[in-house]
Amino acid sequence: LEVTQFVVTDEMIENLPTVPWLETLILDEGRLTDQALDSIKQLSKLRHLRIRKSPITDRGLKQISQIGSLWYLNLPHAECTAEGISYLQDLPSLRQLRLGSPRLGNEVSKVIAELSSLRSLHLIGIPITDEGLKILARMPRLQSLYLDDSMVTEDGWEWLFEEAPNLHVHVNQKHHDRDTQSHDHN
Fold it and tell me: Taking the model in full, what pTM does it have?
């Protein structure tokens, strides 16, 4: 189910549990609150969840952590903290996380690094520094790292490409010059 043309509200989501086979839910024009996650968490086969323009908080992430089948979570406009991210440790199949939240800082690196199933991570507007980058780069299964508006220095990037040469890296939506995994995305 993909809704991109009109605003979705909490009330519109209430009947979603009547579609238990739903695997993908994309809500690009939402104004959802954590209350909507009470219904969404009942989708036991949900694998891909994207909710844009909605201030999902730690309470909402706690609800999301109950969707055991979830492998791709995209919340670019969340309002969560590192504590909320820690709830995602309960998702054994989570492979991709795309997240933006003005309430997150460099400290979230340690919490994200504990999400051992992650293969792909995209952080938007989160001020990760060289120190945070080093923590993320050591994630054993991480294959792809996208950082938009980070605080990583050129020394940090140099360290990354020496220590993790096989990691696919994007900086502000583009390949870094030194990314050996660079390829055309067209």
Answer: 0.90
3-state secondary structure 56-112: CCHHHHHHHCCCCCCCEEEECCCCCCHHHHHHHHHCCCCCEEEEECCCCCCCHHHHH
Q: What sign results for the dihedral spanned by CA atoms 38, 39, 40, 41?
A: positive
Any bridge partners for residue 121, and if so which? 97, 145
- The answer to whether 112 and 91 have CB atoms below 8 angstroms apart is no
Are 118 and 96 in contact by the 8 Å Cβ rule? The answer is: yes
User: Could you tell me the pLDDT band of residue 9, with boundaries at 50, 70 and 90?
Assistant: confident
Over residues 44-56, mean pLDDT: 96
- Residues in CB range of 85: below 8 A, 6 or more apart: 61, 99, 104, 108, 111, 112, 115
Q: Report the Cα 31 to chain-centroid distance in Å.
A: 18
CA angle 94, 14, 82 (to 5 degrees): 35
